[in-house]
Amino acid sequence: MRKEYLSCVHTHTEFCDGKSTMEQMLLAALEMHYESLGFSPHSPLPYENDWAMKKEDLPAYFAELARLKRLYGRRIDLLCGIEWDEETPDLPEGLDYVIGSVHSFRKGDIHFSVDYSKDLLAHVVKEGYDGDFLALCADYFELLVAHGAKKQVDILGHFDLFFKYNKDGCFLDENDPRYLSLACKAADELILARPDLYFEINVGGMPRAGRPYPYPAPPVLAHLSKRGARFVLTGDCHSDRQLRMGYAVLESLPQEVIKRLFLLRKEGFAPFY
Ligand SMILES: [Zn+2]
Ligand SMILES: [Zn+2]
Predict the structure, then answer these.
(1) At what angle do helices 218-226 and 177-193 cross, to 10 degrees?
(2) Which of 54, 169, 173, 234 has the highest CB neighbour count under 10 A?
(3) What is the CATH number of the domain that holds 148?
(4) Distance from the CA of 81 to the center of ligand 1, in angstroms?
């Protein structure tokens, strides 16, 4: 048995599309003796949506974190983060860390999120990409590499989120050599641009979408590891009950990956082992 990974820095609360309050999330983390907990609301977006934080709620977010730190800050490291969407032009000041993610982009007339619904994704692949899912992956990776290259990003979010609805390879065989060369090229470009970047091992799709393994999928995780990438394990939790779901995956991660696994604490990133 490996030791437990007692941290999550990718959590969503009522400040965006999460179901729990920040305090509920924190109490769940305390119950599980977490060493650190980071909040990462979806950054405000310049268009109507039902999942990102509203810009006017930023002061309330910072104030609630300050209140929780006063109450519980001696028992757990509380970190003020954000999941910085590629479509959010600028970052607020005063954050402890930033997760850089791509969720949505435009193809022709269609503006879509790769993780919104299976039907929407299928529609975009058919109408926007003429059935070519690989071309969608290429567009996503282009944005991901450019976003991850920004120096403000500390952690790269869900490397291959477009696989969320890829049950049984219904959109693409995840081991297709053409896909793997595309994904490995994106990984190499990111490492080259940002040797100090941490990559998420994000288990959020396991409880929520029935993914059999975290993002990124095993061959790409192995490639990243071979290239010396460093990782953090996250739950991408949208409720306090999800906080621990999926972490059992730690048992099956290759030792090479475990050796490159870190935990974000108040003082910064610390090796897991
Ligand atoms: Zn995300
Ligand atoms: Zn998230």
Answers:
(1) 40
(2) 234
(3) 3.20.20.140
(4) 13
